[in-house]
Structures are given as C-alpha cells and as structure tokens.
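Two records follow; treat each independently.
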Amino acid sequence: MTALQPGDPDWETKVRESFARQGIMTTLGAELTQVEPGLVEIAVDFRDGLSQQHGFFHAGVTSTLMDSAGGYAAFSLFPADSSILTVEFKINLLAPAEGERLLARGRVYKPGRTLTLCDVEGFVIGPKGQRICAKMQQTLMRIDGRADLPAAG
C-alpha cells in the first residue's frame, strides 16, 4: 500500500490544535497517543464518570473516542483550508470495554476528494493485556474553503 500523503505541510499542528479545541475530549480526559498521516490514536484512562452500570467504559465513550480517532486520521490528509464532518458510522461492540484504559485507533483506508472512509478499532487495556472491544466503519466529509478554526463569538 502506498503511504498516505497529507494535503497540508503543517498537518500535524493542524490536527493537534483542532483536538485541543474539542471540549468533549477535554471532558473525557482523552489524549492523542499517535499521530501519523492517515492514522491517529486517542486514549483515555478509566474513571467512574465514564462507566455504565456494570463498571465498563460506556458505549458512548467508546464511540466518541473512535469517531474522533477516525476523524483526525482523515483530517490529517486534508488541505489547509478545509474542515471535516462525520457523515455516518457503524459500530460493532464486540466485547465489554472492561479495562484501565480505552484506546481508539483510526486509519484511513479510502481517501477521497469529498468523502473519506476510515476503519477504526477500539481496544481496552488492563490486567488481561490489550483486547479489541469494538470495530467501526466511518465515512467523513471534507469541507473545502472552511478552515477548521474556532467559531467566531
């Protein structure tokens, strides 16, 4: 497979600055753990506020982390004057997200001029090691002429 090429020479700064503006990632306590063209990992440590009634990571937390990981994987390839929106995703929750840390790995598998498709995996890390807990297929839309900047207040 040919290496994916970013459309912006300052792609990594663009991704990191956009991530820092996402209030939901701050609320979750999430962090970027890997940033490469077409591949982004985001992780969060477990705490009670992120759990469902059985003490696992809530599916909403899992899908939120995975949506952002795939979104930033796609965004890393976009030109400087563009932004991104998720069009749709389909998630399969494969196992309870029981662990000390949740990791989402988003990877572009079909870049496009308007639509980009990503494959996203969710893993839990704990005493049993790293185990997959979810898979997502995601479609993202590139919005040209609208740089990913904070909204004017």
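The next record belongs to a different protein.
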Amino acid sequence: MPRFDNGPKRPTNLSLNAKVLDMARELGMNVSQTVDALLAEEVRRRYWEKWNDENKEAVTAYNERIEREGLPLAKYRTFLKGR
C-alpha cells in the first residue's frame, strides 16, 4: 500500500475555483495541507480500486478454494470451539 507520511513537499501549480479558494482563506484553512490530504485519500482509494480489479480472479479463486477445502490451519483454532 502506498505510504505518504513524511514525504518531501514539491511546489506545484493548481487552478482552483476562485470563490472556493477565497472562502477557504476566509475560514483560515491551510489550502496546501487540505489539498494534500484529500489528494492522498483519493490516490489510496484509486490504488485499492485498481488493485482489486487487477487481482479479482486470484481473490475469487482463493475464496472458492477456501469454501471448498476450508482454512489450512482451521484445526488449530481454539476460539471457535464449543459453538
């Protein structure tokens, strides 16, 4: 999974809605920090969406095998005994 904490900062140019930017500044928001956090959240979401798409067949095959054969170490589980 991508980790973004303590990553170096890089200057960039953005075009933002002027009214939204003015209101954010009025509210005392740190626009750079806010955009950084929201962008990181969206990158994580898309990363996992892409990962799920790319690994869909493997996950399905694994789940089918577990359904068919059970968990490999299930006999050593103690927390479900007595049910």
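Discussion point: The helical segments are 18-26, 31-54, 56-69. How would you locate this feature using only the token line?
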